[in-house]
Amino acid sequence: MKSPKKILIIVQRSNGDVFLSNSLVQELYEYYHDPKIDLLVNDDTFDIASLIPYINKIYTFSYQKKKNSRWKQEKNLVLDLYKKYDLSINLTASDRSVIYAFLAGKISISAIEKNNYKSWWKKKLLDYYYYSDLTRHILLNNLEPLRILNIQHDNLQKPINISNNDLSKIKEKLESKGIKRFIIFHPSAQYNYKIYPKGLRIKLLTLLNTLEIPIIITGGNTELDLNIKNEVPALHNIYNFIGETTLYQYFVLSKLSIAYIGMDTLNMHIAASQSKQIFAIFGPTNISMWSPWSNQLKTAASKNKPIQTYGKNTIFQSSSPCEVCGFIGCGSNHGKVDFSYSIDPKEIFNEVSKWYQSSGF
């Protein structure tokens, strides 16, 4: 195909999905020599989408608007998008996003389900398609359109660029609090079932405090985050930054940190893109798809294990089978509000301590 001048990328899922489209965006921008690239995302992921480089415009889809007026939003989006793009790429297999890709692009590429009963009509609409593979890492799934376009790439999770000026500003603020070298602990997540329970979390922080290095606790301003903020113990090496940084400032903090400890959420993937030392606490998440990517090894975890290390990444996973499905790390919370973690804080601390003592810090 001729080099497209206008490209639309559709990612109608969570913050992590949107962030992990960054490598695709950068590869397309460099290969096609500065095309205009637009995004279509859900409105609750706008903040992370706005930090992805080379994006010209961001369209948003709102489930609240869909609830209030089912067809008005769809009509307006179709009018805005219809055949205005040389190339449209959809990274999710949902019916709506596939239709948007078909209507928007003169050439359309999309992920679809392997189940032919669900996807037969999508194959007829689309110019090209690939199968969404739940056994394959999300980064590799998102880079699959490059294979279709015959674009060579390096299987790296590319970071968001941060200016030296922004690094200096945050560094000065930290030094004013007596913080130079530090570790990030991110205890929160989008959903309650992904959060390490309060009692275990406090035991872990008490142990981490003995490392005699600042531990910065991060989080946003959601109800879940603010509840955790009030539960952080007062310890001399623990700094409670929950609700005190913007998303971009978190990227800067992560860049300045020496390691990430915390839940399998967007912040973990940010650390992975920056090739940080990671100690990730997993619940029922699908490991093969959502484990932290290793830029060092160009791979991720694929099997469920209580503790596993590859490259700079160590994953702690509840070893007891889910009481609903009987599997470990099945990838579903089955509608449950919480999850029965069986990860001992001492196991996490021992791995962190072993790394910290051997790293020469």
Any overview of this molecule?
The chain is of the alpha/beta class. The protein has 15 helices and 13 strands. The strands form two sheets. The chain has a seven-stranded mixed β-sheet with strand order 9-8-7-10-11-13-12, sandwiched between helices. Strands 3-2-1-4-5-6 form a six-stranded parallel β-sheet, sandwiched between helices.
CATH architecture of the largest domain: 3-Layer(aba) Sandwich
Rounded to the nearest angstrom, the radius of gyration is: 21 Å
How are the strands of the largest sheet arranged?
A: 9-8-7-10-11-13-12
User: The biggest beta sheet, please?
Assistant: 7 strands, mixed
Could you say how many structural domains there are in total?
2
Q: Return the structural class.
A: alpha/beta
Number of helices: 15
Compressed to H and E, one letter per element, the order equals: EHHEHEHHEHEHEHHEHEHEHEHEHEEH
Terminus-to-terminus distance: 52 Å
Low-confidence stretches: none
CATH level 4 superfamily of the largest domain: Glycogen Phosphorylase B
Please give the number of β-strands: 13
Helix content: 25-40%
Mean pLDDT comes to 93
What is the CATH first-level class name of the largest domain? Alpha Beta
Per the CATH scheme, the topology name of the largest domain is Rossmann fold
Q: Per the principal axes of the C-alpha atoms, what is the gross shape?
A: globular
Strand content: 15-25%
